[in-house]
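hey m, so remember when u said the tokens were messed up on ur end? i reran from scratch. heres the input so u can diff it against urs
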Amino acid sequence: MYKYEIILYWSREDDAFVAEVPELPGCMAHGATQQEALSNTEDAIGLWIDAAKEFNDPIPDPKGQRLMLA
């Protein structure tokens, strides 16, 4: 399990729940349910980290705190 902040919301445009990982630029996933979107996000985070390692890009440590306040 990864410890990055995940922002989960309903997207009318996509007709799905969308989960974004703000600390990992471009890392997001979607699903028909909140649980599916979150589960898919775990996979997306893993793939993001694998790609960063492959290209020797920096991998940010999870901040462990809320990044944004609406």
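this time it looks ok to me. DSSP finds one helix and three strands in the chain. if urs says something different then somethings off w ur setup not the seq
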